Amino acid sequence: MSNKMHVKLNVNGEDHEFLAEPRELLIYALREKLNLTGPHVGCETSHCGACTVTMNGKSVKSCTVFVAQADGAEITTIEGLGSPGALHVLQEAFKEHHGLQCGFCTPGMITRAAKLLEENPNPTEAEVRFGIAGNICRCTGYQNIVKSILAAATELNAAKEAAQ
Amino acid sequence: MKDDITREERVAGLKGMGCSRKRVEDARFTQGKGNYVDDIKLPGMLHGDFVRSPYAHARIKSINIDAAMALPGVVAVLTAKDLEPLGLHWMPTLAGDKQMVLADGKVLFQGQEVAFVVASDRYVAADAVELVEVDYEELEVLVDPFKSLQSDVVLREDLVAEDGSIPNGAHGPRKHPNHIFTWEVGEEEATNQVIDNAEVVATEEMYYHRTHPCPLETCGSVASMDKVNGKLTLWGTFQAPHVVRTVASILSGIEEHNIRVVSPDIGGGFGNKVGVYPGYVCSIVASIVTGVPVKWVEDRMENLMSTAFARDYWMKGKISATKEGKITGLHCHVTADHGAFDACADPTKFPAGFMNICTGSYDIPVAYLGVDGVYTNKAPGGVSYRCSFRVTEAVYFIERMIEVLAIELNMDPAKLRSINFIKKEQFPYTAALGWEYDSGDYQTAWDKALAAVDYTGLRAEQAQRVEDFKAGKTRKVMGIGLSFFTEIVGAGPVKNCDILGMGMFDSCEIRIHPTGSAVARLGTISQGQGHATTFAQILATEIGLPADSITIEEGDTDTAPYGLGTYGSRSTPVAGAATAMAGRKIRAKAQMIAAYLLEVHDDDVEFDVDRFVVKGAPERFKTMKDIAYAAYHQAIPGLEPGLEAVSYYDPPNMTYPFGAYVCVMDIDVDTGVPEIRRFYALDDCGTRINPMVIEGQIHGGLTEALAVALGQEIAYDDMGNVKTGTLMDFFLPTAWEVPNYETDFTVTPSPHHPIGAKGVGESPHVGGVPCFSNAVQDAFRPFGNRHTNMPHDHWRIWQTANSLGMHG
């Protein structure tokens, strides 16, 4: 179509350029064009958070962001958080504390949790629960997700202290 | 030979049954490397999307696809007329009815599939959906099953004979054109006689509202017809991939060996992904027509509006007892709203599922259950949302009847339960409605639960709270929710359980590799339950190879043995049993190999953790690893090379997990907001395979119970419009609304299951719903409440308080 826009994104440290219709959603571009299928589509109304990514330092629901709005943005998806040999502390913690079951919400949940711990490195349980209230999980009842995030916070803080 | 590690270390090294082994699935899921159906991309793949009916009941006068076809990128628009020559415009349902794949002359519920657009990408497909012109003539809408049974409006003209007579349905005679079946169990006359002459009788009517399993991943499929080789591959959100293959073969005429069905990772199922949906059929047809792969993935609104709902039972109960509280009889009648097509996912002989477990955990001498299924202008379905077939309804019914009987008797409901429990020594126990409960120790579990929460102390606190409320010192009331449930899971014995004639056995096939690792394939499919972790634990204990060396594969019909899939908590009871039995076959052959290698008689060696040892001479042994190598690479007289086994397990009975739950709730009567102060859950699922996974299942099931009891509903208006079609209106609890749960357990193994396990995934939902509901109802009991219907959302709770005069 003639009305395509030229979009530049930096995703997980890599630059990408492509053409997109103005109505194209960020989640669509990530999943279909960049083959980053970690973020998922759960509701398309910003409620479930399965599509959560970090955009310019903020958690966003990529199912309701136009990719044109993201032009020039730095984006982190679950694929950018850790690598097979060096998992992010949260990825380890979710495994250790059984913070996931079907895994569909997990990429969005961990991406959100990582941002949450950056914003608030020492959250209370209530702050964690409030901080992830935009991410729905149908399997775990959240108890072990909260446990995982609190454990990761403790570990990250200990690592920070050791580094100082 | 000597070992330098202890026996305990050898046991621990296996990571077998009973340990909280970390999940092997998590590596891919935490890194965003799961492979769900929407992640599948094939070269040249097209995308399908549905034109859906905005009306709940209308005749279709015409469909014009010209404008849609003219849109660049649109490849095809299928309507019923295109499917009719293939005989695919209707399809059989799991309940013996049939269902339109695409609207054939009329639509019967809002959101019904009318036409299937196939286009180059999702955006184009969505544009084309808008361009399909459908001319509807609105018809009278029936959303109330009681009115439907009285109405002259015929919903299913295809089920009325030309002379106006009503032919029998799949489950016998029908009383009205909109009537589906009557199903009766037990002795009605004898039950009525007991109730009519009883000292105390409690009656109640309750509506278990319509809701939806709503897994976070919606339903979808990718069909790829390889015309060169004549082979169809179908990936999809299938809780029962083999059933899908058989049904697809019957419908399409493609031989079963030429169909490969794959369930990739599934983003939650909870019953929603058991049935066969029009989208699956249309993606297949579209791939056959276009010759390229076609993907269909529904959006959330489509999922909530058109795929399988749960519950929608209008239940009427009568329960009788002596003055001392001994229950003497139970009568239950259900008017079941099945929507426009009877697409319930139940074993064929059970049109109301296992609703006849409604005598619960109690020794009730005589009982009767009657269920009438009814057509309305609502979406079809009737699946078991995180429960075995209709067990949630049954347990809610009996646990509410116990509470109203307690009110009638002016007795503590915990005590009333104790008086009536089936006693430990009565097992195996045959209930009045036919089921043979395998094992249980209810009183022990109940006493443990009540002691754990200090039940007596809670009641004293509640009494004080009532005084304080009446004195104007507080605006919060306190509820103590109790439930004691018995589930019936693990369907099931082929003699009485089948779906569309397919017996409900399950299977496991094991192949041991020469160097002592293994792959096992099962007929089930995990949707988050962690089968790859836990089934390997069963095998590790059975065959003495480390769980970490055992790969579990499920969901690919080309490689997995035939099985009936995962729902109704049947994986552990049925496929888990098959796994243990296949493991024992491996062990039997390994014993012969070990004896040969050790130069003793077969009977002179015995299995010990990870090896066979010579009896009385533990220093002489062969490990399973040694044996595996020898099985392939050493000529053993009289034995075939190799070490493989397969087991198809037809369970002799269902399993009957049970549990005792207590919920303590504070409710603000002015806002109607309930605060869950405490939730204690004791589960007895028999032998425990992985405590960590069990607890995770319980947390999740309880949260889905909280959702259903406190707000989650598929609601319709009088015009048949779905009022809760997005997550804006359909309640899914967030971390903010969910409490921490206390879990506890007793262990009463199943006597007939090879490892004594009973299944657990659904128990917390089954027991949780009445527990949350009873907590709300109990809070208002001291103020005159007897029964209010779920869901207890803030508005309805406020209304309850208001109707009891608590707002001054």
TrEMBL record, chain A:
Gene Ontology molecular functions: 2 iron, 2 sulfur cluster binding; metal ion binding; oxidoreductase activity
Name used for this protein in its record: (2Fe-2S)-binding protein
Cross-referenced PROSITE patterns: 2FE2S_FER_2 (PS51085)
The keyword Iron belongs to this UniProt entry's keyword annotation: yes
Organism for this UniProt entry: Antarcticimicrobium sediminis
Domain 2Fe-2S ferredoxin-type: 5-81
Keywords for this protein: 2Fe-2S, Iron, Iron-sulfur, Metal-binding, Oxidoreductase
UniProtKB/TrEMBL annotation, chain B:
Catalysis performed (reactions): CO + a quinone + H2O = a quinol + CO2
Signal sequence coordinates: none
Origin superkingdom: Bacteria
GO molecular function terms attached to this record: anaerobic carbon-monoxide dehydrogenase activity; carbon-monoxide oxygenase activity; copper ion binding; iron ion binding; molybdenum ion binding
EC number: 1.2.5.3
Keywords: Copper, Metal-binding, Molybdenum, Oxidoreductase
Presence of the UniProt keyword Coiled coil in the record: no
Listed Gene3D superfamilies: Aldehyde oxidase/xanthine dehydrogenase, a/b hammerhead (3.90.1170.50), Aldehyde oxidase/xanthine dehydrogenase, molybdopterin binding domain (3.30.365.10)
Cofactor(s), by name: Mo-molybdopterin cytosine dinucleotide; Cu(+)
Limits of the Aldehyde oxidase/xanthine dehydrogenase a/b hammerhead domain: 31-140
InterPro entries for this protein: Ald_Oxase/Xan_DH_a/b, Ald_Oxase/Xan_DH_a/b_sf, Ald_Oxase/xanthine_DH-like, AldOxase/xan_DH_MoCoBD1, AldOxase/xan_DH_MoCoBD2, AldOxase/xan_DH_Mopterin-bd_sf, CO_Mo_DH_lsu
Pfam family, one: MoCoBD_1
Keyword hit for Chaperone: no
Stated role: Catalyzes the oxidation of carbon monoxide to carbon dioxide.
Assembly behavior: Dimer of heterotrimers. Each heterotrimer consists of a large, a medium and a small subunit.
Protein name (record): Carbon monoxide dehydrogenase large chain
